[in-house]
Amino acid sequence: MRYGQMRQYDIANGSGIRSTIFVTGCRRACPECFNEEYQNFQAGSLWTEKETQQMIQWLRDPNVEGLTLLGGEPMENAEGLAGVVRAVKAEISKSVWVYSGYLWEEILRDPLKKNLLELCDVLVDGPFINALRDPKLQFRGSSNQRVIDIAKSLKDGQIVLYRDEITGHVM
Ligand code: SF4
User: Fold this and answer.
1) Ligand 1 pocket check: which of 2, 21, 22, 26 to mutate, most ligand atoms within 8 Å of Cβ?
2) How far is the CA of 51 from the centre of ligand 1 (A)?
3) From the CB of 35, is ligand 1 less than 6 Å away?
4) Domain contains 78
5) Distances from the Cα of 134 to the Cα of 11, 140, 141, 168, angstroms
6) What's the pLDDT band for 33 if we cut at 50, 70, 90?
7) How many domains does the chain have?
8) Residue from 110, 26, 37, 31 nearest 69 by CA
9) Which label site among 81, 88, 118, 166 has the fewest CB atoms less than 10 Å from its CB?
10) 33 Cβ closer than 6 Å to some ligand 1 atom
11) Is 164 part of a structural domain of the chain?
């Protein structure tokens, strides 16, 4: 697995201050891709144990609410990211958000993607669509995207939208 960036403090991708990983590689070829250079699976740097340990150290900061996975396409790096999330969860209990161009329903059909999904807490699904862009939306760029509570959705067998713990708003 390769990555383009990792950020210690990120306030744009999920609830609160989060540490983020931007993996590289994506085959979806969305017409309005916001990050074409990250479509290339050879872009960026190789993810190693050093990066995993760095991320665990950042997540120990009490100001950091959790980890967010972005890309590129996290679900096309599902095996590698599942290893990272497992290593993080073995050390520290913090929420994990994942942003994917794939829909919830597509992820559930693929065992590797589903495995990563089950390790995470919140999924923001679907591609960003510029025609549906709405800057007032929280945690997502366009109105087609859904902010999904993964554990509740799996338990109920249907999509349950994420409720923000601070505002109480359903996304
Ligand atoms: S899923 Fe994301 S990275 Fe992949 S092509 Fe679409 S916008 Fe670009």
Assistant:
1) 26
2) 23
3) yes
4) yes
5) 18, 9, 6, 20
6) confident
7) 1
8) 26
9) 166
10) yes
11) no
